[in-house]
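ugh ok so i messed up the first submission bc i forgot one of the chains. this is the corrected input, ALL of the components this time, i swear. 1248 residues overall. if the numbers dont match what u have on ur side tell me asap before i send this to the collaborators (the ones from the other lab, u know who)
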Amino acid sequence: MSLDDSQSKFETYVVIEFDSKCPHEIKSWLNNRLKTSAEFLTQFASNSKEEEVFLYIGATTKRLLKGAENVGIKKIYRNKTIRDFLLEDIENFENSTNLEDFLSQAEKLKVIEYELNNLKHDFEVMNFNEKFLINKYDGIINQLKKMDLILNVFPIHDKTELKRLESIWYKNIKSYGFFQYIPIDKIRNYFGESVAFYFRFFEFYTKAIYPYAFFGLVTWILPFSPFNRFMIFTIFNLIWNTVFLEIWKRTSNELSYSWGMFDLEFIDKPRAQFRGLPSINPITSKPELVYPKKNRRNKKYFVSYPIIILSILLAFFLMMIYYSIQNTVNLKFDNPESYMHTAFKMLPSIGYSIIVIPLNLIYKYIAIFLTDWENHRTQPSYESNLTTKLFVFYFANNFMTLFYEAFFDRNYENLSNLLVSMLIVNAVFNKLTEVFAPYLKKRIVKKIIDKRDGDDYEKQAYSLDKYEGLYSDYVTLFEQYGYITLFSSIFPWVAFAALVNNIMEQRSDAFKFCHVNQRPFPSNANGIGPWKIAFELLGIVSVMTNIALIALHPDVREYFKGFSDAEYICLFVLIEHGLIILKVIIMIVIPDESEAVANAKQRYKYESLEALKKERLARSMKIK
Amino acid sequence: MSLDDSQSKFETYVVIEFDSKCPHEIKSWLNNRLKTSAEFLTQFASNSKEEEVFLYIGATTKRLLKGAENVGIKKIYRNKTIRDFLLEDIENFENSTNLEDFLSQAEKLKVIEYELNNLKHDFEVMNFNEKFLINKYDGIINQLKKMDLILNVFPIHDKTELKRLESIWYKNIKSYGFFQYIPIDKIRNYFGESVAFYFRFFEFYTKAIYPYAFFGLVTWILPFSPFNRFMIFTIFNLIWNTVFLEIWKRTSNELSYSWGMFDLEFIDKPRAQFRGLPSINPITSKPELVYPKKNRRNKKYFVSYPIIILSILLAFFLMMIYYSIQNTVNLKFDNPESYMHTAFKMLPSIGYSIIVIPLNLIYKYIAIFLTDWENHRTQPSYESNLTTKLFVFYFANNFMTLFYEAFFDRNYENLSNLLVSMLIVNAVFNKLTEVFAPYLKKRIVKKIIDKRDGDDYEKQAYSLDKYEGLYSDYVTLFEQYGYITLFSSIFPWVAFAALVNNIMEQRSDAFKFCHVNQRPFPSNANGIGPWKIAFELLGIVSVMTNIALIALHPDVREYFKGFSDAEYICLFVLIEHGLIILKVIIMIVIPDESEAVANAKQRYKYESLEALKKERLARSMKIK
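and heres the new structure output, hopefully the right one now
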C-alpha cells in the first residue's frame, strides 16, 4: 500500500464562497483550521473584483481514504459481499490496486462534506476574537453561513469524469433504445445514491409506460362495449400499477444492497443544522448531540400535521368559494356575444389564480419552517418529512380541481381539456424554466468569464443555479403518474403523451444535472423515500376514481339500464372493493426482495451476531 | 462455577413412549445413543403389562447448560441487556450464582427436544441391523415415529413448579381483578413463549372488552336517534379495535424483546420433519439440509392456494344450494300446523349439517397434508402456514351464514338468534369438550393408576390427551372477536356476554394446560403469529359490515328519507371509505415499538456490526 502524498496534485473538490464583507482574519483562520485539523489542501481564489472570496478545497488520497472509514462507506469485499471499508483491511477489497481511483467521486465528496460539517470549535486553536461563534456544538461552517459570512459551499464538477459520464449516458444515441439501460453505477459513483435512484426510477417508470400505452391503444381499437372496455382497462391499470411498484421495490432493494445502503440508520451522519444537547447516543454509546424522538413526534402530531390539515381545508374552501362565485357570475353574465360579459366571466378565475399563487408559496415556507423546527437528525429523514408535507398539500391542491370536474361537474370535455393542458404545461413549462433558461444564462455567463479569466471551471460553477434537491423532479413524475393512472379508464391516450415526453425529459434532466445546476453534494439513499408511498397511495386512489368514472359514464349506465340506481351503485361498490382486495393480494404475493438480496442481508446480520458472540467469548477468556 | 455432576439427582424431563411391538434391541440401542452421544440420563419404565415401553429422559445441569448455547437461548446480561447465552461467559449473566435454576423449565426442555430431534445416524455406533433407518439426514426419532415404533415423545410436568405456578395464576382469587396481571414471565418460564403469548393476548383482549362493553351500554341507554347511535358506536368500534391491536403490537414487541425472541430467524432450528438436501446454508455457511425457498413458494402459490380457494367456493356453493332448497321447501310445505310439513322443512338443514361436518374434516386433512408437503423449515413457519389455511377456510365457512342472514335475508331477528346461539355454543360446548370431559377422564384414570402403581406422575401424564397446538384456542378467541366486532353497531350487548365468558375461560384454559392436556414442548414465538393479521383483517371487514348493517336498517333509511336511493348509498360508501382511511391513519400514528425497545434492538444490531468490523481488523492485522 503506497500512499505517498507528493503523488497527489492539487485538485479542487469543493468551493467555499465567502461574502465579500467577511473579515480577512476569519477567512485565513478557517483556512488554517482546514489545513491543520482537517488536513485538507486549500487555495484561495479571487472574484472579478479581485476580492479573495473563494476557497478551493482539495485533499490527498491518503486523507480521503482515512475519512472514508468515518463516513461508513461500504465497498465490495474480495468474497463479492459488501463490507464496511476499513483502511487497515484495504487489500481485501476489490480494485484496491489503484488507490487514486479506489474511492469514487461521490465518496470523496462525502468525506469532504462530512469533515466540513463537523468542523467544531476547538478552543486551543482559537487565536483571535471568536466570540461570535457562540455555540460550541454547532459546526463552524454552519454558524458562518447563518451569519451570512459564508454564502455557499458546493462541490464542483470533474471535467474529465463528467465528459466520460455524459458520453455513455444521454449523449449516447444507443441509450435511447428500449432495451438499453442508463449507466446507473457510473451515475451513482459521480452523483451519489440519491440522484442515481431518481434516474433509475425515472427510467424504470418510462419503460413501464410502454406496455401501458400499448394496451390502452388495443382496448381502444377493439370493438368492446364501453363498460367492458373501461373495466378491462381499469383492471389492467390496477395490475399494471401494482406490479410496476412491486417490481420497483425489488429493483430498488437490489440497488440499495449493492450500493451498501442497507444499514443507513448507522451510516447517516447528523445534518449540519441538527440541534441537540450533548449526551450519550443510546445506541452507539458515543457522546453525541441527542434530541429525543418523543419531542419530534409530539411536534409533528400536535403542530405540524394539524397545520397541514388546516391549510388543505383552507385551500378546499377557497376552491369551493371560487366555484360558487364562478357559477353565480356565469348565470348573471350569460350573454356569449357581449365582450363585457366574457370579461366578467374571466374575473373569478383570474382572482383565484392571483390568490392561489402566493398562498402556495406561503405554504411552502411554512412547510420548510416546520420541518426545520422538527429538527431531524439526518438529511434523508429531513428530506422525507419535508417532501411529505409539500406533497400532501400539493396533491390536495392539484387534484382537487380535477376531482371537481370529474365528479361534481361531470363535464368530461372540461376534464379532458384540463388533462391535456396540464400535461402540456407540465412538459413545456418545466423544460423552459428548469433547463433552457438556466442553460442560456450559463452560456452567456461562460462567455463573459472566458473573456476575463480564461477557462476557469470553478468560477463558472459559482455562477450556476444552486441545486435545490430532487423534490421538483419527483413532483413532475408524480403529477404525470396521476394524470395517467387516475382517469386512465376514460382517457387511455394520456399515456402516449407521457411516454413521448418522458423519453425526452430523461435526457434533459440528465443535462440539467451535468450543466445547468451546481453540482450537488452526493447524498445517501436506500430508495426513492416517501415517493414510494406517494405512488402507492395514488395507485389505490386510482382504483376508486376509475370505478367512479366508469359508474358515472352515461354509456355504462345505459348498458345496465335493467338495474335500479341502488343496485347499480352497489354493483360498483362491490367491484371497487374486489379490485382493492386484488391489489392488496398482488402486493403481498410479490416479495419486496429477491431471495439473493434477502439472503445476503441475513448473512451479514448473522456474521455480525456471530462476531459479537466471539468478541464476548474472547473478553471473558481474557478476564480468566 | 461448579458443575459437579453428582449433585444432580435423576429428574424426568421427557418421556419416550415405544410401541409394545418395538424390538428390544432398538430400545436399548436408542437408550445407548442417548446416554453416550447425547449424554443424557435415562431410565426405563414399564406399563401395566410389565412391558418396558417408557424411556424417561433426564440430564445433568452441566449437560443442559452446554446445550443451551446451541439452542440459541438468550438471557439477561449484567448490563440489563439481552444477550446470547455463552457458557464461558456465564458469570456475566444475571442469576448465575445458582446454576441449577439458571435455566428455566422451558429452556431445559428446549435443549432436550433439540438434541432428541437432532439425533442422527452415526455409522460408527451402529452395531446391529439398522437397515430400516434409511435416511441418514432424517432424525432417528422422527424415523422411528414414522415406523410407529415410537408412539409419542412428550415432556412431563414438574409437580413443585406447577403447584407454585398455579397458586399465583388462576388459583389466586386476586388474579381476577381488573388491575391484576397474570404472572406472564412465570408462565413463559414454564410453558415457553408460544403458550405465554397466547395467555398474555387472551388477558389483554379480555381487558380491552371492558371499555367496549361499557361504551356499548352507554350509547344504548342515551336517547340518540338510531342513526346517531349506530354511527357513534361504529366509530367507537373502529377506534377501539384499531387501538386495541396497535397497543397489542407494542406489548407483544416488548415481550418479544425481553424474552430474547427478536432474531428468531437465526435461533429457530429445523423441524424434525424438515426434509432437504445436504448443502451449505447460504446465510450461516454451515452444512445443513437446505430446501429452496422458491420451491416452497411455487408449491404455495400454484397448488395450496388454488386448492384453498376451490374449497371455499365449494363450501359457498353448498351453502347457496342449501338456502335455495330450504326456500323451495319452505314455500311448498307452508302449513305451520302440519307436523309433516314442519318435519320436511327441517330436512334440508339436517342434510346440510350432515354433509358439512365430514367436508370440514376432509378440508382439515387437506390443509395438514399441504402444509407438510410445503416442507417448512421451522416450527413457527409450519404452524403459521397451517393456521392460515385452516383459518381462511374457517372464516369463510363460519361467517358465510352470518353474512347471508345479515345482508341477503336481512332478517335481524334470525341474525340476533344466530349470534346468541353461536356465542353460547362457543362458550358451553368448548368448555365441555375441551376441559370438563378430559378432566373427568383424567380423574378416573388417575384413580385406576393410583391403585395400581402408586402416585406415578409420569404414567398419569401418558394417559392425558395429547397437546394439539394453540390453533383451536386462538380460533375460539377469533370467533368471539368476530361476533363482537362484525355486527357490534346493532348488537352491542354481545360484548357483555363475551366479557363474562372470557373471565371464566381464561382460568379454565389455564387449568387445561396444567392438568387436562399433556405438557407441550415449549416453542419459540415472537408474537401471536398469523393471528395478528387475522384480527386486523377482521377489523377492516367489521367497518364494512357495520356500515352495511346501518345502511340496511329500516330506521336509518327512514331518518334519511329525503335522500334518493342513489344518494343514500353514496353517502354510506363515502362514510365507509372515510372510516377505513381513519383506521389506516390510526395504525400509522401509533408506532409498533416503544422507543426503548426500538433503541435496544438498534443497539444490539450496532454492537454486532462493530464487532464484525473489529474482527476483520484483527484478522487483517494478524496477517501482517
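quick check: Chain B has 20 helices and eight strands. that seems consistent at least. The longest strand of chain B covers residues 150-155.
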